[in-house]
């Protein structure tokens, strides 16, 4: 029920909450940016206005100073003129750098041109001796050039900035109003979303609890009915009834029946195995026994004289050895000994087994090639691992009666930290009708095969927590791969290692 509520209700509510959070964070960021840009704009306009006021004041001071000199004729009044001139040009330079729009720059250009014209004319008229200046001309110059060409554009510059300031202020107010509306809406949505989500979750929980309650009621009713029925039965039988006791008894009977069925199934399986084993043993033992019987009968009938010929003795011995082998194999299969695992470097062990089968391989024209890619240590029972390798190598040689190559590779695959021993041949490969069953007991395509070799190999490998698989080799033939866990310890010195000592 909990996952259903989560996927059906809580997940969409959580998604809406996350969405609201994202919108809120986005709005806060936008608001901050907006405030920053408006504040920047306002500061810029105010600074420009200050610069324009400075400029106007400087020009006015300049004019007043000139007019006062012309009225009084006091030449000391001309002394501050160079300083005022410097202040005026500096104020103009400041206003120029702050005027960023084309209109502001145009007005400042006009102001500069006016000031330059004024000072050029003033310099020319005074010729270095200001007290010699013509009163009327100088006054006209001050009024026409300074007032017309300097003060007017400066004022216009000031008005322009006042207008821009008012505009920025209005824009700021509009943005604030918009954001106030947006944030109010967002807050309302959040609250509404929370209310709605809570309501939907509580409704879903209520529904699920009602359903659970309904089921509980039904179960209780059924239990009630069962108890009443049991009570009726017991009453009819004339004894005091205990419904729970009856239910417990029935359950115990059912459990007992189930256990019995399980035991029967296990027994049937064991019997089937025993039957299969018996059939296998009978099949294998019959041929050597028959040979021995025929020979003894021939001896009894006097057909071989009163004693067996050396050739018959040899056949008799061979058949007895075969019987021993058969019994040994069955014992190996039926009761595989517990592995006595020790850390062993596997490469030399494989080399040793290959060396020991090489004599037979040479006779058969088979070349046994061993590749040990890197030293690998695994916890193994050396004798049992040798037994596996003998089986695989003999099978590989038997698959190539007319000669060929058996390749044994030892290493660890790059993608898997395990010991891997791969035995590959160039024979005909696994027969189609047995390829999925080669590890099962009594599966053989060979005339004299018992079909136990590979099943014993599998038991041994699994006893080492490993696995053995069969597949087609890349260049035809069969490939058997044994995988075993790597050892965590280092192998004992060579002389302590029985497998290595023998190789
Ligand atoms: P057996 O050797 O007595 O037949 P095994 O269990 O060793 O019993 O092998 C079972 C069967 O698996 C063999 O009869 C054969 O059909 C198949 N087999 C095993 N090794 C090879 C191999 N190298 N190439 C082809 N078939 C193989």
UniProtKB/TrEMBL annotation:
Keywords: ATP-binding, Kinase, Membrane, Nucleotide-binding, Phosphoprotein, Transferase, Transmembrane, Transmembrane helix, Two-component regulatory system. Pfam families: HATPase_c, HisKA. One of its GO terms (molecular function) is phosphorelay sensor kinase activity. SUPFAM superfamilies: ATPase domain of HSP90 chaperone/DNA topoisomerase II/histidine kinase, Homodimeric domain of signal transducing histidine kinase. The keyword Protein biosynthesis does not apply. The keyword Zinc does not apply. CDD domains: HisKA. It comes from the Bacteria. Residues 280-488 form the Histidine kinase domain. InterPro entries: HATPase_C_sf, HATPase_dom, His_kinase_dom, HisK_dim/P_dom, HisK_dim/P_sf, Sig_transdc_His_kin-like_C. Residues 222-234 have a biased composition (Basic and acidic residues). It catalyses: ATP + protein L-histidine = ADP + protein N-phospho-L-histidine. Its EC number is 2.7.13.3. The chain crosses the membrane at residues 6-31, 183-205. Residues 222-241 are annotated as: Disordered. This is histidine kinase.
């Amino acid at each position: 029920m909990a996952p259903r509520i989560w996927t059906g209700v809580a997940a969409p509510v959580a998604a809406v909450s996350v969405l609201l959070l994202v919108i809120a964070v986005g709005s806060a960021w936008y608001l901050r940016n907006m405030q920053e840009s408006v504040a920047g704009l306002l500061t810029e306009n105010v600074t420009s206005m200050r610069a324009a006021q400075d400029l106007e004041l400087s020009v006015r001071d300049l004019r007043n100073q000139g007019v006062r000199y012309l009225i009084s004729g006091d030449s000391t009044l001309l002394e501050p003129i160079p300083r005022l001139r410097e202040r005026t040009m500096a104020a103009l330079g400041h206003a120029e750098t702050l005027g960023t729009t084309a209109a502001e720059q145009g007005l400042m250009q006009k102001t500069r041109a006016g000031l330059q014209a004024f000072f050029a004319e003033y310099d020319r008229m005074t010729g270095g001796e200001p007290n010699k200046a013509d009163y009327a001309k100088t006054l006209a110059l001050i009024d026409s050039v300074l007032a017309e060409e300097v003060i007017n554009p400066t004022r216009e510059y000031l008005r322009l900035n006042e207008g821009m300031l008012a505009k920025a202020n209005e824009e700021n107010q509009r943005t604030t109003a918009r954001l106030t509306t947006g944030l109010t809406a967002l807050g309302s949505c959040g609250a509404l979303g929370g209310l709605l989500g809570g309501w939907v979750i509580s409704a879903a929980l209520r529904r699920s609890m009602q359903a659970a309650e309904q089921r509980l009621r039904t179960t209780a009713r059924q239990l009630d009915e069962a108890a009443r029925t049991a009570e009726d039965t017991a009453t009819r039988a004339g004894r005091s009834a205990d419904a729970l006791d009856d239910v417990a008894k029935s359950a115990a009977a059912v459990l007992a029946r189930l256990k019995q069925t399980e035991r029967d199934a296990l027994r049937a399986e064991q019997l089937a195995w025993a039957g299969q084993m018996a059939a296998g043993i009978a099949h294998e033992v019959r041929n050597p026994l028959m040979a021995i019987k025929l020979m003894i009968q021939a001896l009894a009938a006097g057909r071989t004289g009163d004693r067996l010929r050396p050739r018959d003795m040899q056949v008799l011995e061979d058949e007895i050895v075969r019987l021993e082998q058969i019994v040994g194999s069955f014992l190996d299969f039926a009761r595989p000994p517990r592995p006595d695992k020790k850390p062993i470097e596997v490469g030399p062990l494989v080399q040793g087994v290959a060396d020991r089968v090489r004599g037979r391989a040479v006779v058969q024209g088979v070349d046994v090639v061993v590749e040990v890619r890197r030293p690998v240590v695994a916890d193994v029972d050396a004798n049992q691992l040798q037994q596996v390798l003998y089986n695989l190598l003999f099978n590989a040689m038997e698959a190539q009666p007319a000669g060929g190559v058996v390749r044994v590779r030892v290493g660890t695959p790059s993608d898997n930290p395990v010991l891997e021993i791969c035995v590959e041949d160039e024979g005909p490969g696994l027969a189609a009708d047995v390829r999925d069953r080669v590890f099962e007991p009594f599966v053989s395509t060979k005339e004299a095969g018992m079909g136990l070799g590979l099943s014993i190999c599998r038991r041994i490998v699994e006893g080492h927590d490993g696995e053995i698989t069969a597949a087609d080799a890349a260049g035809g033939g069969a490939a058997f791969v044994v995988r075993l866990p790597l050892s965590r310890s280092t192998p004992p010195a060579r002389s302590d290692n029985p497998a290595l000592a023998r190789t």
